[in-house]
Amino acid sequence: MNILFVCSKNLSRSPTAEMIYKDHDDINVKSAGTEPSAENKLTAENISWSDLIFVMEKKHEQTILENFPIETKQKQIIVLDIGDEYKYMDDELIDKVKAKVSVYLDK
Known about the structure:
- This protein has 107 residues and is of the alpha/beta class.
- The protein has a single domain, classed as Rossmann fold (3-Layer(aba) Sandwich).
- The chain is 37% helix and 19% strand.
- The protein is built from 4 helices and 4 strands.
- Strand 1 (2-7), helix 1 (13-21) and strand 2 form a beta-alpha-beta unit.
- Helix 1 packs across helix 4.
- The chain is globular, with a radius of gyration of 12 Å.
- The two termini are 13 Å apart.
């Protein structure tokens, strides 16, 4: 399964989620950001590659749907509702990501 994690600048939240899941069996992960200044910018290729997209906030989902309407037609986008208040690999951020993402990966 190919999973894409998306936040704004790809500095803290989505790279943390990528690190958490990068060594899991049967899961390939990437992360990207929606802002022009993002470390890794979200692309149509990222979206096409993914089987499942996790976004940190509702605004990320809206940006993806507005900018990539064709690529997202058959994609499931899940809003994790994790605000931009954490540093990279923050313990509380790790706990939140694991708790919210595991619901979908344990199915």
